[in-house]
Structures are given as C-alpha cells and as structure tokens.
Amino acid sequence: MADRSGDVTRLLLAGTGLIGHRHMQHILDHPDLTLAGIIDPVAENRAVADVPGFTDIDAVDVDADGIVIATPTDTHMPLALRAMDRGWHALVEKPLAESIEAADRMVAAADAAGLYILVGHHRRHHPVVAKLKEIVASGTLGQPVLASLIWAMRKPDDYFDPAWREGMNGAPVKQNLIHDVDTLRYLFGEVTQVVGTGSNAVRGVARTESGGAVLTFDSGVTVTVAFADTTPTPWGFEAGTGESPMIPKTGQDCMRIAFTRGAVEFPSLRVWSGAESWTEKPEMKQTEVETGVPLVRQLEHFAEVIAGRAQPLIDAREGRKTLEATLRLEAATMPKSVTT
Q: What does pTM read for this prediction?
C-alpha cells in the first residue's frame, strides 16, 4: 500500500464491479488518496486488507472526505442523496441517474448541501481528449463542420449475466455511447436535434443492439454516429486509445472531424491542413500528446475539488445535460419491438 503521509484525501467506495475495482486499485496505489472504506452488501466483495467494510452507506462509521459511487444506475440517486446528507462530496459513475427526474433531485440536493456531485465521464480527463478539445477550440483549423464517429465492439455473453443488464440498462447507448455523447458535447456544445434508427436483430432480446443517428449541435456541427455491441471491430474509443484494461488496444481511429480549413483524426490526432479546396492536397502532421491514466486524473481532480482548489470539470448539472442528450439518442434508435 502506498505511503499515506501528508495531505491525503479519504475516499469511500460504493460498488465493487468492473469499474469499481478499477477505482479501488487506483485509490490504493495513489500516494495522496486513501481508501477510507468499501460499501458492498456482499461480504467477500468488501474484504480488502486494512480497509473497513460496510453493508450499506448508513453503516459507515469512519471519517471520509468524499465517496465514489460505482453501483448499478438505479442506485445512484439514493446513494448520492445520502452522501449529501452525510456531508460527503460524491463522484458518481455514468450515467448520472436512471432518469432526468432523478438527476434533477441530485442537482438540487448538491445545491442544498453546498457540496459537489461529479460525474464519471472520465474521458474528459484523457490527455488525448484534452488535446482534441484544444485543437477544436483554438480555431487553427477553422470552424468545425461535421464529424463521423463509430463505436463497434462485441460484448461477451457473460456481460449480460447480471439481471440489471438484461434489458435496456445493458444496451450500448446508455451504458457505452453515453461517453461519446459527453465527448461530443464537450467539443461542440449542446445537441439540438437527433434522428436515428436501431436494431436488435442479432441477439433478439428486448434492448437496442446497434443503430445509427445524426446529431445536430447548436454550434452548427452535424455528427453521424454508428454503434453496435455485436461486432468485434477495431473501431471504438477504448480500442483506439487502449484506456480500458479489458479491451486490447488497436490504435485505430474511431472519429474524424472536418473543419473549414482542415481535419483531424481521433484518437491518432493526425491533423490535415494546407488545402484551400479539393484541387489541392492537404498535408498531415502528427500531434504529440502527453500520457496519463484518465481514471487516475479524474480521482486527482476529485481530490482537488474536495480541497477547494478546483471547480468540477463535469458536475451534476453538466452530467444531466449529457444524460438528456443520451436519452434522446436512445429513444431515436430504439427498435419498434422494444419498449421501456
């Protein structure tokens, strides 16, 4: 376990699933963070040496500065509200909540408590995304006009073993593509229109499996999005960046953005510029990017917010906007045979 001397932020962890385990290990390994306790109803899941374990949030009897909530979506709101009652800032995994109504209650609770609820859209903390944001905002390539994005992975069959993932909560839009929606909002502003179509033709279950949509943003950018969780392609954020330990890195681009004076491929960040029209050949320049683990950077940011040294990069209000846009995308791409 890392040295805990000095200014250490004490974090609780609720939930020990796939993302919860990643948070747990990063907290244990970080010299400026300490795992104050683990909340999980299953005893073996919270059995970590020298770390107190609790069956539920009300049983916690240790001092803490904040809590990471990495539990099923429908528990986010009640846990966050209880955290506000107990005086803890919260970092809530995406999606922020299961509904807009639940998200609104979380926003109101944070405001009333004078605390922050951060949302786990950790890609905003990825060095490659930060550099892409810098390129877009700089105006060097002119005005962004359009983008094309693809997320196409094949989830293993046992991904759907937990009961809560059997239906729409296990579908790729709200569970996976929500990250891409948040990144697009981060880059281009608010979504003003969504049209799309979807299918569940492969597994034939009551959830969306694949689809496509066109999103219009208030900045004037048009984005086409294609997605599927039934095909093992090299195209998707996780495969392209290698940020997930569960998904092998392919290094392939999953998004292309066109500007009035050039273009950029992502995540390779190959920038094309120098051509005035189709009669000229653009030149490519490779953009260099620093390294960093986004989940670690997100936890460090959370600690800075708790300490009052930073404002949230994405708080509950911002997370609510991403949830709203994602739900619009989900509705637009839901097969007619699927009902919520």
A: 0.93
